[in-house]
Design brief:
- Zn(2+) 1 binds at residues 387, 391, 415.
- The active site is at 388 (proton acceptor 2), 388 (proton acceptor 1), 515 (proton donor 1), 515 (proton donor 2).
- Keywords: Disulfide bond, Glycoprotein, Metal-binding, Signal, Zinc.
- By secondary structure, this protein is mostly helical.
- The chain has a domain at 11-226.
- The chain is built from 24 helices and four strands.
- Helix 2 packs antiparallel against helix 3, helix 14 (317-330) crosses helix 16 (379-397) and helix 22 (558-569) packs antiparallel against helix 23 (576-584).
- The radius of gyration is 23 Å and the shape is globular.
- The protein binds L-captopril and zinc ion.
- L-captopril binds at residues 11-12, 358-359, 384, 387, 525.
Amino acid sequence: MSSITKRAGQLAGAVSALALLAACDPQTPAAPAGDAGQTAAETAQPTAEDARAFVERAGQKLAAVSEEASRVFWINANFITYDSNWLAAKQSERLTKLGVDLAQEARRFDGVEGLDADTRRKLMLLKESLTLPAPAGDDEAAAELARITTELQSMYGTGEVDGKSLGELSETMASSRDYDELLATWVGWRDVAKPMKDMYAAMVDIANQGAGDLGYDDTGVLWRSKYDMDPDAFAADVDRLWGEVKPLYESLHCHVRAKLGEQYGTDKVPQDGPIPAHLLGNMWAQQWGEIFDLVAEGDADPGYDLTQLLKDADYDHMKMVETADNFFTSVGFEPLPETFYERSLFLKPEDRDVVCHASAWNLDDQDDIRIKMCIKPTADDFKTIHHEIGHNIYQRAYKIQPPLYRGDPNDGFHEAIGDMIALSITPDYLKQIGLLDQVPSEDKDIGLLMAQALDKVAFLPFGLLVDKWRWQVFSGELTPDDYNEGWWKLREQYQGVTAPVDRAADAFDPGAKYHVPGNTPYMRYFLAHIFQFQFHRAACEMAGWDGPLHRCSIYGNKEVGEKFNAMLEMGASKTWQEALEAFTGQTEADATAIQAYFKPLKDWLDEQNQGRSCGW
Ligand code: X8Z
Ligand code: ZN
């Protein structure tokens, strides 16, 4: 539910009261634990009225502590030092304790009769809001958990290889076509993660105890319980969705593998097995847009390169941000406040360590919204700016809700808002804002779709497997000895990629991905890659569009914006199914929108793949 991200915990988003909790983990209230629970605690048989009063106080208490914590976390992420880590760990510990205390208190009302629906929902949100709960009543464990999560985040944020930052290494992964250089870069970054493994395992033990104290079998069950449905039904639902998009992924995989075989040789890229993970243009092989030039040819040329257009038009970071801001205002949202521009971090500072992984924040749960990003003038970052501002727009929309509802009802929504808007960055739109002179004709559509698929379709199995791995870790199905092997099993099974070299026994490759040391749940991104197409299709239908979905832009459409805002403003006050229905008329995640979007490409790929043997 929460939007965000933070500190010991996650990344991304909003720092609403509840979100903060979700980010960390906790236990006995550091400060005034007492008052949130006293009434109920003193009452042997709590009543519905006690419950109502409790959720009211709990919301106020969370709101009261979250702003200070957010500001400490902001400073920590912008200046990673011994002291800022120390301060952040203290805040994290305090929030975790408070969160556990409130969750335990909320459990006292289980079974109480006569609860109104609103109070019941708030109690549920309180019980489920933590990402990594500490064991109840164990101050030492809460402190240890906060130290570990802060340290892991810091290790990732300060990681470098031979003086090169992750940003520089990522540029090599994107642009180099030298097999050995790519391999060295890929291996180098993974060395940063090795020392995380023991700490990670200790963290898992503590959080599992905390989850157990809250009545969950393990932390993975807690994570799966946040979707207004039974946790097993949620796991089955993501598998259903994956089954629906897998044929599309397999067609893309087959074509890309064939092209990589041509580039690097079929001895390096065997045509009947998984693809070596360092050849896909991305440090984690999660989005493949950077190898567009290797896989597209002939009619798969989109006719323009957005990175080049940005460069030609002298777009710097500020112009990129203003352009994204302008898109949101074109559909009726208020412009971002002055303070957004004054207080955001847009560029990587030369002189200090910062967490460069992009994130969006709401520091006061009202209008102090910001992003923190190390922007480069590329098409990817242009889209990521829309992604981050989408978080901010959502945060600002639900500020009207009471504190416990200032979040999303499904974290996949938070990740889908800006991405849905970015799907409207069509050739027509680029022409309207003066970046493109001439809209390419329809015979360029395969190229447009290919560029999009290399990011959006390629991402799907990665988005799915990161938490498949964590679910196995939390359940004990994977023990620390098997962490890495288990990771590569899933990478191969779902993505059809493989480690290019044998991995050392002490390797901890999952730790080389931000969200693992950052403890940001990841299934949200898989969901978002389904929802954003569902939102986009609904928006285009509302706009009366009857052309292909990939040519539809809602730029300037205030009617669509108003309906979208109505869903955003609901925050977490309704189930995600209800919120989804309000905008799309549907009550389920539905992969038919992404299928429809890519249908012409799927047909083209299947033609290209004739005579090839696909699969791995
Ligand atoms: O982490 C992010 C955003 C911030 S919430 C930049 N994303 C995932 C990633 O980078 O791994 C967006 C796409 C997936
Ligand atoms: Zn995000």
